[in-house]
Design goal:
- By secondary structure, this protein is α+β, with helices and mostly antiparallel strands.
- It has three helices and five strands, in the order H-E-H-E-E-E-H-E.
- The chain has a three-stranded mixed β-sheet, with helices on one face.
- Helix 1 packs parallel to helix 2.
- The longest helix is centred in the middle third of the chain and has 13 residues.
Length: 89
């Protein structure tokens, strides 16, 4: 096939720098890896989370994610978050 063979993180490692601003979506493991790479060079990163949303308007809190300032709802407060605000543990 055409292009680079490997993963998104392989390409990112070679091309990200402090003035980069990265936007990403995908599986949780990849988002965590992208954040680790961008934070190591002090680049900005925003992630679009894909959580199960039972109600879709914030009542059930089924899509809550842990952030530095407490839990936030993906359906109401997101789905895009600053990667540095999320608790990746």
């Amino acid at each position: 096939s055409y292009g680079v063979k490997g993963t998104v993180t392989d390409v990112l490692k070679k091309n990200v720098h402090a003035s980069s601003f990265v936007y990403t979506c995908g599986p949780q493991g990849m988002l965590k890896a992208v954040y680790a790479i961008t934070s190591s060079v002090k680049a900005k990163c925003q992630v679009s989370l894909e959580e199960h949303m039972a109600c879709g308007f914030g009542v059930c809190r089924g899509c809550a994610v842990k952030t530095q300032s407490g839990y936030m709802r993906v359906c109401k407060d997101g789905p895009v978050f600053d990667a540095a605000d999320l608790s990746w543990s």
